[in-house]
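Suppose a colleague, Dr. K., hands you the sequence of a protein chain of 345 amino acids and asks what its three-dimensional shape might be. Before reaching for any lab equipment, you can write down a predicted structure in token form. Begin with the sequence itself:
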Amino acid sequence: MSELRKDPILDHWVIIAAERGYRPSDFKAEVPMAYTGAGCPFCEGNEDKTPPEVFALRAPGTAPNQPGWEVRVVPNRYPALTIEGGLNRRGLGMFDMMDGVGAHEVIIETPHHERHLADLPVGQVVKVLIAYKARIEDLRRDLRFRYILVFRNHGWIAGASLSHPHSQLIALAITPRLVKEELTAAREHFARKERCIFCDLLNQERALGERVIFETKHFIVLSPFASRFPFEVSIFPLEHSHDFTLMGSEIMEDFARTLKETLLRLKRALADPAYNFLLHTAPNPVPRPGRPEYWGTLAYDYHWHLEIMPRLTRVAGFEWGTGFYINPVAPEEATRFLREVEAED
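The predicted structure, expressed as tokens, is then:
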């Protein structure tokens, strides 16, 4: 029989339609984009085809915007938001408006056109994470920006327009609704219990064990209880931390290893599926007029994490009409399968 499950943090419902009996082999992987570097603007040697870099990790002695880089960050040539100008907040009757100010950047993860995060050495994944951290820290200095989202689209169904391995970053002048719901739920739970809601969740999941895919020294990989999508996965630091950028080198290396192993398990289990991943971290604690302590308890109540959502099913009319998701694979079944996948290179 199907189950309705409620997410304990976001207060949304999911239908787990496990009686459909889906297995990983039942999902047809998309045809991957051709791995050709011909004319790719992100390939080494084509630096003149992108805007000038804003950050790079390079071999010693190499010049900006020239070959010799290991990770490179450039503004998006077709940005959703633009960096120049003021917010110009205004109203039009009952409508709220502001100018489309923000930052939209591309993190080019490797010079190698065909090697995605799951295939990269752990050391190279660490360099990608260093780039994430550096850009978040830099953009937080701009008090116009309240939230900085790092995300990755893998495969054209997931929204990737170029096959060269890359992530993206968008700095926003508002806190996105989904993130705000998480932050608000975390703050309210802490106000009632003086505990982090995410830490409570992790303690319960570790005690139950049935949705824990694997653990490392510093991280845990879970199938969420109310998974919205088949084989949805979340990665949490085991030790409470509200901010991705606070990781030291040892923990960052462990996170790189954990992320690589998780992506490799999904790749091998599901024939390299399209996926999106989203980094959920603390917002910019910008003082707000009249509410200077708006996110004042962040360090105590929030817990950063990364969500990975394979794109194996399509959102259709029911989902749009209700806000519910239908997931044909029970997270416990997905967990059992992913535990058995050999993830060593």
